Amino acid sequence: CMSLLAAAGIYLVLDVNSPLEGQHLNRYEPWTTYNENYMKHVFKVVNEFSNYNNTLAFFAGNEIINDEQSATNSPTYVKAVVRDIKNFMKIHTNRKIPIGYSAADDLSYRISLAQYFECYEGDFAEAIDFYGVNTYQWCGEQTFQSSGYNVLVGDYSSFTKPIFFSEYGCNEII
Question: Which residues are catalytic?
Fold first, then answer.
């Protein structure tokens, strides 16, 4: 599959998590799932896909933080996954592949979460290399202003890392 994607000029940003048991963080109790078996899964994904030139980046998580409880419990664990992947890649891979996070576009956490993931305390490896935003607010005949994209762009105007729409579209045409 990766060879066919490469032949078509398609690059992949891959989430290291899966919905299967033991292969993702529990957003409400991440200390119960951030363990040796989970990290073995993460490292296996990184090891396998880092060999493909068209692996553009890895997501350390996708919408793990999406409400007050997960925002309280999960961010430090996501940063730990970022750090652990980067440290693993230094030793076990021949390429430096960016590690980021894909966030739900929740107004309650839009800026604070992005800022938290771009900073680090003592270990540069815990900072993300890029940030993905999942937004579904531009629908139908809307404009840059009526969709709210002008606010979205303004909110991230001082963000220091590359940022892109990791998911986008429309949930309800207005």
Answer: 63, 167
